[in-house]
Amino acid sequence: MSVQVKIETKNEITYKTLLKEKQYVKNLIAKLISRFGDSLDTIAYSWMVYELTGSKTMMATLFAVNGIPNLLFGMFAGVFAGYHSKKKIIFTCDMARGLTVLLTAILLLTNTIKPWYLYVLTFFNSIFETFRAPSASSMYSMGLDKEKLDYGMSLDSTLVRIAELSGFSLAAIFISSIGTGGTIFIDSMTFFISGFIIITIKYQDLIKKEAMTMGSSFKDLKDGFKYLLESKVVLNMCLIACFINFIFVPFNSMQAPYVKEILNRGVEALSFISVPLLFGMIIMGVLYPKLKKVISGFYTITLGGGFLGVSYLLLSQLGRLTDSIYLLPLLASCSFLMGVGIVFMSTTIQIGLMTLIDKEFFPRVVSIFNVIGLCATPLGGFLVGVLCKIYNLSQLFLGISIIISTLTLLQLFNKELKKL
Q1: How many CB atoms lie within 10 A of CB 281?
Q2: Each residue of 260-294: pLDDT tens digit?
Q3: pTM, rounded to two decimals
Q4: 136 & 270 share domain
Q5: Distance (Å, rounded) from C-alpha 156 to C-alpha 24?
Q6: What is the rounded CA–CA span in Å between residue 277 and residue 165?
Q7: What's the gap between Cα 161 and its chain centre?
Q8: What is the pLDDT of residues 353-399, one digit of tens each?
Q9: Are residues 175 and 240 in the same domain?
Q10: How far apart are CA 224 and CA 259, in angstroms?
Q11: 157 and which of 249, 277, 285, 314 could share a cystine (Cβ 3.0–4.6 Å)?
């Protein structure tokens, strides 16, 4: 009896099991360091632009410039990854990103930076990030066995959120103590550290033996589109990912006017949105593998959609409680529920992609997937801008809730999605 118990314990997959996966742990540590730096950069870079120009328009246009390389080179980056070592691509891109950010810090510290430099630096930094993404996704998918992906993705998601929270929390302290330039300098170091960790990882890579040509590149890209269109379940996940990006534009972009105009509260109310949202994602990230043992991927996606629909519904009605002591706790509850819904849907899609896509096609399909998903954000921003001139935010959120709920119910009849 004792021998039998030991065998069951040994075969059981837990978070502790992942600590024995040295290559996975290396990859995770590199990712956490990089994401911590990204969080510092988000605050420091915005503050730098504001200090230099005081222009909201420039901040918006820099955001647009940051997305252009992904649209221009995203699909080609996936093809490129199929012909070269994934970890060498990641290492090169991390080094290049580190140098770009380091140059930004030096220019800022020496007071020689000009506003137009930021467009150039942002554009090149985004190019390196675009080429890095397909290789990073492919490398991750090859680093863990399929039966460990639930726990691997959940641990990854949870620790990444904690790293981001740490970065956001420490950014203000760093800026106030060592200045914006010093904070950006620390950010540059995180890229170098990440790159040197990545280059030490050992894994079985899939690299095409033939030389990469213009003709082979277009053929590979065509094959990637064909694979995506023929794999109905992957195509469904792609459409759901676009939908998620689309519906989060109002929530992400309209928090400040929602708090001020609908809830009649000050900037302090924003913390009741951002912090519970993050905690919802962290807590559900930890619990996700346990839930997946009793709930299939199909139901986690539909439940996630249900949570998002309820969250938007509640947000649309909170304007009726502006004088109530329950307003802020209810706002926090909505955000927490939305964080849970995000994890249910996004983690299921990530795991589905890694388990269902053939490794040969993975970089190409993921790059196409990312570019299509990215297109949903500017489209959502445009529609939100138009609709906000016609409806107030309560009406807009109510309409989004109805759309989410309707589309989620329709997924109950989606035979392809049930393959998850």
Answers
A1: 24
A2: 788 888 766 777 877 788 888 888 888 887 787 77
A3: 0.68
A4: no
A5: 10
A6: 11
A7: 10
A8: 777 777 777 777 777 777 777 677 667 766 777 787 788 888 888 99
A9: no
A10: 43
A11: 285
